[in-house]
Amino acid sequence: MPWDYDLDVQMPTATLGYLGRHYNRTVHDYRFPVEKDELVVDVGVESNLGVGGERGEGVIVGDDAGLGYVNKTYLLDVNPHYADLGRGNGANVIDARWIDVSTGLFVDITGLFVDITGLAEREPADRPGVWSCKNAHRYRTAELFPMRRTEFEGVPASIPYAFDKILTDEYGAKSLTGTEWAGHRWVPELKEWVKLPEPLLEEEADKTTLDKQQQDSKAVVVVVEKTVVKGAE
Fold first, then answer.
1. β-strand 67-78 against 58-60: which pairing, if any?
2. Is residue 20 within 8 Å of 12, Cβ to Cβ?
3. How many Cβ atoms are within 10 Å of 167's Cβ, its own excluded?
4. Strand 138-140 versus strand 155-159 pairing type
5. Which residue in 30, 57, 62, 196 could disulfide with 67, CB within 3.0 to 4.6 Å?
């Protein structure tokens, strides 16, 4: 979402453990194509290496078809406490991060633990088979699997089978129908959230303030009328 500063993904704790044992603190390069007119080339950056030959963001001039390539480098950082079942003081609940080393932006990764015995401390004994994370998100297996294939930011991705139920349970029914949020409006033709111009933002803010004032005014009237009636008694 354009108003958010990070992305959030979840994966089974077993998968996260494999990544931690074999790939923790490793860096990975990813090259993706872009239109040449979208490339922003800094002085000294004309290859898949950053300025001075260091790893980082760089540009590769592409072919005559108008395509170029951007190289990004990412760091995988796995929390050594990823397997802890409890939240502790709540300040260490992110189990791993996938970090863009050129910008510092990151993807938060949390592990999902499933207890098939009903004996683990995170879930009560009467709820075996529930997947849960340290942030108190809980899902039943049938809500997650089989995963649905989709596309996110131009790349293949997997989402839960009952994504609509999960979203409404978390954010309410309006999460599937609302078209404006955090100064942005959903444009179906573009399939994007587009930032509202400043005048529209101010207009929306004024409308919200007016609605609140009207509600407060109505509330005062009700109180006064109630007081008058009570005095008459």
1. antiparallel
2. no
3. 14
4. unpaired
5. 62
Pairing of strands 106-114, 58-60: unpaired
- Contact indicator for 11, 20 with CB cutoff of 8 Å: no
Could you give the count of Cα atoms lying within 13 Å of 76 in the half-sphere of its Cβ? 14
Between residues 78 and 70, the one the model is more confident about: 78
**Integer Cα distance of 207 and 35 in angstroms:** 41
β strands within the chain, DSSP E: 6-12, 26-35, 58-60, 67-78, 96-100, 106-114, 130-132, 138-140, 148-152, 155-159, 180-181, 184-187, 192-195
Q: How far is CA 227 from the centre of its chain?
A: 49
The pLDDT confidence band at residue 27, using thresholds 50, 70 and 90, is very high
Mean pLDDT of the chain: 77
pLDDT at 55: 56
CB 132 within 8 A of CB 138: yes
Backbone angles phi, psi at 175, to 5 degrees: -65, -20
Type of residue numbered 94? I
- pTM for this one? 0.72
For 39-75, give the DSSP string: --PPTT--SSS-GGG-SS-EEE---TTSEEEEEEEEE
CA 19 to centroid of chain Cα atoms = 21
